[in-house]
TrEMBL record:
Protein name (Swiss-Prot/TrEMBL): Deaminase
Lineage of the organism: Bacteria, Bacillati, Actinomycetota, Actinomycetes, Micrococcales
Pfam families for this protein: RibD_C
BP term (GO), one: riboflavin biosynthetic process
Bacterial bifunctional deaminase-reductase C-terminal domain location: 4-178
Superkingdom of origin: Bacteria
Length: 188
């Protein structure tokens, strides 16, 4: 049975992107952290994206075409390219990456039933799409990467209208000050 996991970088004050839309402060280029992310996502066979997150992540489709990418970039690109992608968008035309389908609407009940029947994990990526999944109560785990910055404003990691009861399962710190947390979502 697959798990639906919400995981991405967030600032300590709870933003996935700052007021300018940037998340360059996330620290993802730290090689040890990136290797950890690659290892964590090996169990993921499908990524669920909204349009903006898909456009950001589509970088990984061509990352290996750059001359001499660092090993941590090569590893993550290979992991990302091996997974399926489902993009939820009413405006996106044809996908620009392999193994990608576009769905026009997000149906939480259909997603829950589909994920439950899989033999691999699925991530819901991007705070806007994740908010829909969290509101519907279909997320099994939340795995934030807490970056050691405060950005003051922007796109929130957590939806403000969704109370969650979380159980800490695991945690890990990195030399750049980032902290990874793994929580199970308790269902009441």
């Amino acid at each position: 049975m697959g798990r639906l996991i919400y995981s991405m970088f967030t600032s300590l004050d709870g933003y996935a992107a700052d007021a300018s839309g940037s998340s360059d402060w996330g620290g993802a280029l730290d090689p040890a952290l990136h290797d950890f992310i690659s290892a964590q996502t090996r169990s993921v066979g499908t990524y669920l994206y909204g349009r903006r997150m898909y456009e950001t992540m589509s970088f990984w489709e061509t990352a290996l075409e750059a001359p001499d990418p660092p090993p941590f970039v090569r590893t993550y690109a290979e992991v990302w390219q091996a997974a399926d992608k489902v993009v939820y968008s009413s405006t996106l035309g044809e996908p620009t990456t392999a193994r990608t389908t576009v769905e026009r609407s997000f149906d939480p009940e259909a997603v829950r039933a589909w994920v439950s029947g899989l033999g691999h994990d699925v991530t819901v990526d991007g705070p806007t799409l994740a908010a829909h999944a969290l509101r519907a109560g279909i997320v099994d785990e939340v795995q934030p990467y807490l970056a050691p910055v405060s950005v003051g404003a922007g796109l929130r990691f957590w939806p403000e209208d969704v109370p969650l009861d979380l159980e800490l399962l695991e945690q890990r710190g990195f030399g750049n000050g980032t902290l990874w947390l793994r929580y199970a979502v308790r269902r009441g």
